[in-house]
Amino acid sequence: MELRQLKYFIEVAEREHVSAAAEHLHVAQSAVSRQIANLEDELGVQLFEREGRNVKLTSIGKIFLTHSLAIVKSVDRAIEQVNAYLDPERGSIKIGFPTSLASHLLPTVISAFKEKHPNVKFQLRQGSYHFLTEGVKNRDLDLAFLGPVPTDDFLLTGNILFTEKIFALLPSTHLLSERRSLRLRDLRNDEFVLFPEGYILQKIAIDACKQEGFLPNINAEGEDLDAIKGLVSAGMGVTLLPESTFYDTVPKFTVKIPIEDPIISRTVGIIVPSNRESPPSVQTFRRFVIDFFTILEKYQ
Fold it and tell me: How far apart are CA 96 and CA 140, in angstroms?
């Protein structure tokens, strides 16, 4: 069995058409058909069944596809790591990040790093808290920025870069919009705009409200910061967001107000797997990030 056969098989399986797969692979259709036939002969099973001009996976073909994808992914990752060890300055780093850190923190850090290491490449993936932690564990990501930094997962090593407060964002027409600060329980009768279930910022907001003796009345949800801020601007409710999400500006028709009671905050940091060694390029980037924020804190 050859890696080429697996790649041809995957292309045909995903496109459900031999000709389309051959065109994408830039090889003759006969070459693809021959390799698939050789693979089926070697395995002793039928992987595809024809449906007119298209092909569909058989039940055993679907099982074999799952394993083939894992094999090809593992080989590709191995090649990437070998290349990174051979030349750390030309490595490729897979970074995960949440939407709350996308507008300022990530671009700032990567831009500063690229000035010293211009040939290192980045693959960026945005996702939820669970997506990021699991991605680092299962090798889909080399590292991830997130907040709060997990402290009880033995499969992850985390470094806290800074701690930031959570602020209230209110429509400018809100009765409390003139206040210089407010108590969280002042918002107990308001409708809230939050991230969907599974997003850590929703959990932070709900947990904080519970501690003050009420559950937030969630009127609307959004999966990114612009959506959340836009809904608040439209008067759909109030929300709670980290200070760093207001780095550029506070949205029109809204006001950002500190919460004086209770003080709500989150840690922000970087995580890597604790059960395997990272490639040199990833180690270099991680050290750079830690040093970058250490120096930044000294001058603040």
Answer: 9
